[in-house]
Specification:
single chain, alpha+beta, 3-stranded antiparallel sheet, 9 helices
Length: 214
Amino acid sequence: MNSNQKITKFNPATVKTMTSTQLAEMLGKQKKHIHEKIKKMFSEKIDGQIIRPSLDSRGYVAEYHLPELESKMFVAQEDINYLEKITQFWIDQNSKALSPAEQLLENAKRLVAHERELAAIKSRQDTLEREQFETKVQVAALVEGEGYYTIVGYCNLHNKKVDNKQAAELGKRAAEICRNQKFSIGSASHPLFGKVNTYPKEILDKIINPGGAA
C-alpha cells in the first residue's frame, strides 16, 4: 500500500466481504501468510480501496476485507480445490436476508452464475500456469544453452503474442522446415497439453522473427 495514501474508515457491516481471517480458516493457513499473499496479488486493488483493511489500535492492518470476485480469485490462485467451499460461502452470504422461497430461487440463479465464474477462474488459472511453464522452458533453454524453444516460449521472448491457433500453424511450418533440413524436433512436458514440440532457435528466427534475430 502507498504510504502516502489516506485510508478512509471502513465499516464492514455496510458491504458483503470475506475477511482474511475467514480465508485463513477455510484454507488452513496462518493469517500472516494470507495477508502477505493478498498484498502481493492485489496491491493495486488495495491502493484503489477495492480491498479494504481494518486497522488495529496501533494503526496496523488487522484484517483485509475482500469482495466476492477477489476472494474467489485468491482461492483459485492459492488452492483451486477450495473453490466449492468458497462458492457455498458466498451462496450463504447472499441468502441471509431472503425468505425461504426467495432463497431457493436465488440459490438456483447463483449456482448457475457461480459455475460460469468458476469456469472463468479456472481458465485464467490455466492461462497463468501455461505462461509460467513457457517462461520456465524459455529460461531453461537460455541457461542450459539448448537453443530449442516452444512456439509460445520463443514468442514470449520476443514480445510477440500468439493464440493457440497461430501457435499450431507456426508449429506445422517449423516442423516441416526441420524435416526438410534434417533438424531434430525436441519435446517438453506441458501442464495442459502433456507434451509440446520444441524447435531450433535458428528455424524459429526464420519463420517468426525474420530479420530481427539477435
